[in-house]
Design brief:
heterodimer, A: 254 residues, alpha/beta, Rossmann fold, four-stranded antiparallel sheet, B: 359 residues, mainly alpha, ABC transporter involved in vitamin B12 uptake, BtuC
């Protein structure tokens, strides 16, 4: 299969007359890993929702593997694309492995339920994210960071060729941030999972992602390697901080 | 994906799974035994003494065609076949339906306190049923059709209103759902009172809807309601996959491949149908839909594939037992019995839910 796994063309989103996204276009090739950065309120989350297919753009089109998103059934979208949200509701007591097992839902036949292959995928995902020590625990009693890792494991179990992550490290301590980043790199390089992540930490973004997309005021204003994108001028203009604060991490990237 | 996942054996996961499966099998088997014991017990217990052997022999002969070689009087047979059996079966079918509807509402709204009674769905159905009683329609088919049709319309309308109002509120989902459910139920209670005021001779029948009970159970009524309740419950169970998707919220459900708008509409409609048919034959019976799914979830986790059928099984037994208690206490409305069991349970749940609920 050739061609981009994901293509956005002139995507505009207006909510109550206010433009949240304006004319955003980009492509993600198979096996690519990109990070989406931008200040708060720039439209990153809205863009993720458009890519996930839960928000329909006011104008423009989104294609998954060459097929318009609007022509795909929800279950088919889920088999092609997994989403790791920041947090989610847990109204009922659920064990960690039960939450992760929900990742197999798009693969289940409506009547049969989970098959041995599904259980193996759940087990492998739990192992890969390193949650073996949390098995049997009620997911509601975990820390925010642990819950974030459970949601990551759910998406790994979903085994879709594209993964979207919304600030997947926001609740994690430093060691787990790095581990989660390394896991994402491993999923991308070893399994070929194409990936788009929203991150706030420019250092992590520059270090772990070969491609950076910058969103500001609803527009895609830069798209390239960390060196091309994270210039002193842009860091000052877009993020309003002194470049020295992030330069060190950026220059660590070859 | 290029790599095949290597199945890793987690001792804890495996024992949990084996343990879980064993527990589910045990719960199902125990549920069937309890149901059969309750069936016979509920037929035997009552003011006119019947021996369990006689009841079993009558049922075996009349329903299964098996002659157990015992003899009985015509009165015993009439008590079993015309009074007790339709009553007990109606209680069981309604109990199963309320438990399934409760589990569905809770899963769909991600709210352990949602049940047909709390949400106002049952009140909507009762109001619809009361309107059907007042309207001057004659002919058996029309009466049943109108009764179930208006009960369904009332249930669907009230659940739609409660659901949409609670979503646009700025309060927390839990608070707004309970408050809108309360407000809509109060409005419907006023409507019911108005219907009673206008009803004249039908007053007693509307009053029966308010109280809830199985005094008027007949084979005919059961034959109309049972297909709606059982059929609706089975259709809900066939959508367990979608209901599981809602466990982490609507956005997550969409990410997991659930067509949220469509499945939500279908599941709300089916749960309303099951509730309405139950209210149309038995009136307002609270808390069965709250207590049973909650206890089942504690035992087997929130997977709808397990929660729905096991809740149906135990809901059937619970309501049949509640009806026996109501009868033995001198013909109390069964809704009073379930409220005495259920209301403290609801309050305890409300206390505990405050800490665990988020979003």
């Amino acid at each position: 299969m050739s061609g981009p796994v994901l293509a956005l063309d002139g995507v505009t989103v207006e909510i109550r007359g206010r433009a949240i996204l304006r004319d955003v276009s980009f492509r993600l090739e198979e096996g690519e890993r990109a990070v989406l950065i931008g200040p708060n309120g720039a439209g990153k989350s809205t863009l993720l929702r458009v890519i996930a297919g839960t928000l329909h753009p006011t104008a423009g089109r989104v294609e998954l593997g060459g097929t318009p998103m609007a022509h795909l059934e929800r279950a088919e979208v889920a088999r092609r694309l997994a989403v790791v949200p920041q947090q989610t509701a847990l109204p009922f007591s659920m064990r960690v492995e039960e939450v992760v097992a929900l990742g197999r839902l798009p693969h289940e036949a409506s009547l049969r339920g989970a098959r041995p292959a599904d259980r193996a995928a759940v087990s492998a995902a739990i192992d890969r994210v390193g949650l073996g020590h949390l098995l049997g625990r009620d997911a509601r009693e975990l820390s925010l960071g642990e819950r974030q890792l459970v949601l990551l494991a759910l998406a790994v179990a979903q085994a879709s060729p594209i993964m979207l992550l919304d600030e997947p490290t926001v609740h994690l301590d430093l060691r787990h941030q790095v581990e989660a980043m390394e896991l994402m790199r491993d999923l991308n390089e070893r399994d070929g999972t194409s990936m788009i992540a929203v991150l706030h930490d420019l250092g992590l973004a520059a270090h772990f992602f070969p491609r950076i997309l910058v969103i500001d005021h609803g527009r895609l204003i830069a798209d390239g390697t960390p060196r091309e994108v994270l210039t002193d001028e842009r860091i000052r203009d877009v993020f309003g901080v002194e470049p020295a604060l992030v330069r060190l991490a950026v220059h660590g990237q070859g | 994906m290029t790599t095949t996942p290597v199945p890793v054996r987690h001792p804890a996961a495996l024992t949990a799974r084996v343990h879980g499966l064993g527990r589910v099998g045990w719960l199902l088997a125990a549920g069937v035994v309890v149901l059969l014991v309750v069936l016979v017990g509920a037929i035997v217990l009552g003011t006119s003494g019947l021996a369990p052997g006689t009841a079993i022999a009558v049922i075996a002969k009349r329903l299964l065609g098996v002659d157990l070689g015992t003899s009985w009087s015509a009165i015993s047979e009439a008590i079993v076949m015309e009074l007790r059996l339709p009553r007990v079966l109606t209680a069981m079918v309604v109990g199963a339906g309320l438990a399934v509807a409760g589990a569905t509402f809770q899963g769909l709204l991600r709210n352990p306190l949602a049940d047909p009674y709390v949400l106002g769905t049952a009140s909507g159905a009762a109001f619809g049923a009361a309107l059907a009683v007042i309207l001057p329609v004659h002919g058996l088919l029309f009466e049943f059709g109108l009764l179930h049709g208006l009960a369904f319309a009332g249930a669907l309308l009230s659940v739609t209103v409660v659901y949409n109002l609670s979503r646009i509120s700025s309060l927390s989902p839990l608070t707004s759902l309970l408050l809108t459910g309360y407000a809509v139920s109060s409005l419907l209670a006023a409507g019911l009172a108005m219907a009673m005021y206008l009803s004249g001779t039908a007053l007693r029948q509307i009053f029966a809807y308010l109280m809830g009970g199985f005094d008027g159970s007949t084979w005919m009524r059961l034959a109309v309601a049972a297909p709606l309740i059982v059929g609706g419950s089975i259709l809900i169970m066939l959508r367990a996959r979608a209901l599981n998707g809602f466990l982490l919220g609507e956005e997550a459900a969409a990410h997991l491949g659930v067509d949220v708008r469509r499945e939500r509409a279908i599941l709300l409609a089916l749960a309303s149908l099951v509730t309405a048919a139950g209210v149309a034959v038995a009136g307002l019976i609270g808390f069965v839909g709250l207590v049973v799914p909650h206890l089942v979830r504690l035992l087997v986790g929130p997977n709808a594939r397990l929660v729905l059928p096991i809740s149906a099984l135990y809901g059937a037994s619970l309501l049949a037992v509640a009806d026996v208690i109501a009868r033995l206490l001198g013909g109390l409305p069964v809704g009073v019995v379930t409220a005495i069991i259920g209301a403290p349970f609801f309050l305890a749940l409300l206390r505990r839910t405050r800490t665990g609920y988020e979003l």
